[in-house]
Design brief:
With 243 residues, the protein is of the alpha/beta class. It has helices at residues 40-47, 62-65, 72-75, 88-97, 166-172, 194-203, 220-224, and strands at 23-27, 30-34, 54-56, 82-86, 114-118, 123-125, 128-137, 140-149, 152-158, 177-181, 208-212, 231-233. It folds into two domains: 21-120, Ribonuclease Z/Hydroxyacylglutathione hydrolase-like (Metallo-beta-lactamase, Chain A, 4-Layer Sandwich); 125-233, Ribonuclease Z/Hydroxyacylglutathione hydrolase-like (Metallo-beta-lactamase, Chain A, 4-Layer Sandwich), CATH 3.60.15. The protein starts with 22 loop residues before the first strand and ends in a 10-residue tail after the last strand.
């Protein structure tokens, strides 16, 4: 946190250095980004990203959206606009903040050139099937996503939510990997606590539960040591094999 001198913020452990939450999905030649955080430039450079085939957005809060302009670099080597998969509300926010990116009269180098695909049902990107899952996040409805390939359920990613409703739990049952909001131990009005996330993972019988969107309230290694065997704190540059 800016201006914070707490032991976690000053920790030399790389697992305690937390940029804003996002995911990079790769499969053969397919490259998909989930959320365009304010840290996108740094994250892309660190990960060695060179191309994107699509972007999926969970919601329009700035910590998940405001790095959108850094997509310009991934548009330079494309002959068509970059597909952006998002909800209706997020699309409206994009048109307000980044309207120039959707004025596709012609392709211009050094600018974001995007085309919105507004979802209200499952959609596909190449061989990947994506199922949007609507979850409450304070007064905002956000989305997580279940990913399937060749009829096989691979994982779900839900970074911002305050509750896993019964309807959502029914969709998440028996996934091998669930990546879920687990902000901190203290109660929060718009995010799950670690205990609430663990309870949700148990309720849906997740094979492995990874907690993300973590605050600076605890050291990675110390808190990890207290978690059940199938529960893990996510960390920057964590790599998961979904196959």
């Amino acid at each position: 946190m800016i201006g914070c001198a707490c032991p976690v913020c000053l920790s030399p452990d790389p697992k305690d250095k937390r940029l804003r939450s996002s995911v990079w999905l790769q499969d053969d030649n397919l490259s998909i980004l989930i959320d365009t955080t304010p840290d996108l430039r740094m994250q892309a450079l660190r990960a060695g990203m060179t191309q994107l085939d699509a972007v999926i957005l969970t919601h329009a809060h700035n910590d998940h959206l405001i790095g959108f302009d850094d997509l310009r670099r991934f548009c330079d080597n494309r002959s068509s606009p970059l597909p952006i998969h998002c909800s209706k509300d997020t699309h409206q926010r994009l048109l307000t903040v980044f309207s120039y990116a959707f004025e596709n009269t012609h392709i211009k180098n050094n600018y974001v050139q995007a085309i919105a695909h507004v979802f209200d049902n499952p959609f596909t990107i190449d061989s990947l099937r994506v199922i949007p899952v609507e979850v409450p996040h304070g007064k905002t409805l956000t989305y997580g996503f279940i990913f399937e390939k060749n009829g096989r359920r691979l994982a779900a990613y839900i970074p911002d939510c305050a509750e896993i409703t019964d309807a959502v739990a029914a969709q998440l049952r028996d996934l091998p990997i669930l990546i879920l909001d687990g902000l901190r131990d203290k109660l929060h009005p718009t995010h799950l606590t670690v205990a609430q996330a663990i309870e949700a993972g148990h309720r849906v019988n997740a094979g492995a539960l990874y907690l993300t969107h973590i605050s600076h309230d605890f050291f990675h290694d110390q808190r990890q040591a207290l978690l059940p065997a199938n529960v893990f704190l996510a960390y920057d540059e964590l790599v998961l094999n979904l196959d």
